[in-house]
Amino acid sequence: MMTVNFIAMGKLKETYFREACSEYQKRLGAFAKVNVKEPEPVDLPQEPSRAQIEKALEREAALIREQIKSGYKVAMCIEGKAVPSEELAARLEALGSGGISTVNFIVGSSFGLAESLKRECDLRLSMSPMTFPHSLARVMLFEQVYRAFSIINNSKYHK
User: Fold this and answer.
1) Could you say which residues of the chain have pLDDT below 70?
2) Of 45, 61, 64, 55, which is closest to residue 6 (Cα–Cα)?
3) What are the chain's domains?
4) Angle 25-31-35 from CA coordinates, rounded to 5°
5) Beta-strand runs (E) in 12-91
6) Alpha carbons 157 and 132: distance in angstroms, whole number
7) Does the pTM of the predicted model rise above 0.70?
8) Percent of the chain with pLDDT over 90
9) Measured distance CA(104)–CA(67) in Å, rounded
10) DSSP 5-28
11) Taking Cα atoms as reference points, which of 153, 158, 156, 145 lies closest to residue 23?
């Protein structure tokens, strides 16, 4: 059974987003071992400079690296590749068939991920060219990973 780690900076504040993620986490548990890790984001002033943002992103990258023991690393970022659900399923299935037992989906804070961390990742993935609230994007990621495993396992969830 594959292990799927969701490493996301900060906890979800809204109850309804936490409940939605929890529901997909529970469903995904039928197909994979699921872990959620939520390191605390670095505090920044109200209007941070580019240098302050870059420094914070590097500190957050170090916190994220501490959460990753091994496995395939997916950086969730705006400049990543947007793929259909079926392609995500095929990629995950190929990883499993190729002997990869752990996949790490990495979600940065509101300013994203440090470029150094993105370079270390095996894949840069985007949810969409549209912009979504950070919390909603996390729910969407959980749903899409669940959908991918549903496709792999021929469940009726994906039509």
Assistant:
1) 158-159
2) 64
3) 2-42+50-152 (3.40.1280.10)
4) 40
5) 32-37, 72-82
6) 24
7) yes
8) 93
9) 9
10) EEEESS---SHHHHHHHHHHHHHH
11) 145
